[in-house]
Design brief:
The protein is an alpha+beta fold. The chain has helices spanning 4-18, 43-51, 55-66, 89-101, 120-124; strands spanning 29-30, 39-41, 72-78, 82-87, 107-108, 117-118. The protein has two domains: 4-90, Arginyl tRNA synthetase N-terminal domain (Gyrase A, domain 2); 106-134, no CATH class.
Length: 134
């Protein structure tokens, strides 16, 4: 399972590619201003120099291509070309459900252990039933 930032980075990279620019400009980072957005992309600033266009125009084009993405509640612009991404509640809920259903993250009780622990315990002891968990 990839992380949310990587998933959004792919979507933004695709939007840049559809706009005729390199997908590498779609790098997404956690927002410097959490009051405005969850994630941000500053790629329009770098793409403007390479494309010879205004960064705000590139950001508007990319934001318009992201507008229909169900993972995003809002796509907004700030300053000269910063793209702010607000993740939808439905996307966060779906992701949390996938994480909760992942068997690698569950706590279990193994026959050779006396307490509940994470599944990684037996990885540390290489599944040797004679080994005791600390």
């Amino acid at each position: 399972m990839t992380d949310l930032r990587a998933d959004l980075g792919e979507a933004v990279g695709t939007a840049f590619a559809e706009a005729g620019l390199s997908a590498s400009y779609g790098r997404v980072t956690p927002s410097d201003r959490p009051d405005l957005a969850d994630f941000q992309c500053n790629g329009a600033l770098a793409a403007a120099k390479a494309a010879g266009r205004k960064p705000r125009d590139i950001a508007e084009d990319v934001a318009a291509r992201l507008a229909g993405d169900p993972r995003l509640q809002a796509v907004s612009l700030a300053g000269p070309g910063f793209i702010n991404l607000k993740v939808s509640d439905a996307a966060l809920s779906a992701r949390a459900n996938r994480i909760a259903a992942d068997p690698r993250l569950a706590t279990v009780r193994h026959a050779h252990c006396r307490r509940r622990h994470d599944a990684g315990c037996c990885l540390r002891y290489r599944y040797r039933p004679s080994a005791r968990a600390p």
